Amino acid sequence: MVINLSRKKNFEKTLYSDKDGIRFATPKIVAQYRAKRLKCKRLADISCGIGGQTIFFAKECDFVYAVEIDPKKIEYAKKNCELHDIDNVEFICGDALSPEVIEQIPKVDVVFSDPSRPAKENKRKVISLEPGIPKVISAYSDKTHNFAFEAPPQMPPKRIQFDCEREYLSLNGQLNRLTLYFGELKQCERSAISLPDGAHINSTDATGKNCGTYDITEVSQLRTYAYEPDPSLVKSDLLSQFVKSTENKMDDIKHVELFTIDKKRLLLTSDTILKNPMLKNNYLVMQVTEFKPEVINSTLKKHDVGKVVLRAGVDPADYWTIRNEIENGLSGKKTIHLFVKDRTAILCEII
Ligand SMILES: C[S@@+](CC[C@H](N)C(=O)[O-])C[C@H]1O[C@@H](n2cnc3c(N)ncnc32)[C@H](O)[C@@H]1O
After folding, report:
1. What pTM value is reported for the model?
2. Residue 342: left (phi > 0), alpha (psi -120 to 50), or beta?
3. What domains sit in the chain, N to C, each tagged with a CATH number?
């Protein structure tokens, strides 16, 4: 068998893989976090691919059963475990839903599956996952009640109609994973975690009581400072809980409000400086002006600006034309982020 050696960002060591396997493999930081959360004596990873996640399960758990339907991928998974000096994994090649595979797996503490999904789908759906979640739960119900599944993070909590925790995870400020936890693994209905720092929030308080929902005041004008919330907060519908907990923790923070730019972008805004790892970019709102490149350009010349990051829903074909017009002749030191709402330009300086 020909084995290609691919290197992927976020992996510490070189991994054996084909193009497809590395594309779907779990990044190291995520795999480490998830392995710590699912740490137990015996775990079955029933769609292990090239073993990106299996390696870290094996480091945390006493023993791991790794199942994979594709014979090529399971060979890569074996090689990758060898590369990481791992010897507590039993590899099983076959369909995780077939009786022959199921009977090779004894009672375990946790069954984990990171299923395949179609390369492209207009709207991500739970039923497109392979092996399917309900089938796995039913097939392995006499092995454990504790299941964890990876699902496409684009799916909002309401589209996941199971009794489980929906954990949205961001990596370096980008939405990266959604993990569903069942049985004793479920800690709440919804949660958000931002990696690598590990800041997190969930929909219940420490006593397990539901935190309820809070309304954030929506404003039509930004205050002195603007903040981009971590995408895991937005996707998990936990933005209002986050604002409430931030206000509760600090007496001097009274009002954190919501400013919607467009369907895809929103900012939190306040007259107080906030510091929180779940706020990925913090800005001083510099000026609000007409969205006309020549007007913006002359404003920026007065503010020592050299570079402008266009954060607007513009046609990608026009991006560089607009940006070059706005940046024409700028030679200052500052970098500005430019948001556009209803033909109004909002110029923000990173602080
Ligand atoms: C997203 S990848 C897993 C990636 C893996 N977690 C990693 O970090 O490397 C999904 C894998 O599920 C496997 N798969 C799909 N259906 C399966 C089934 N019925 N039984 C076992 N494996 C299956 C696919 O071949 C694919 O390699």
Report:
1. 0.92
2. left
3. 5-187 (3.40.50.150), 225-350 (3.30.2130)
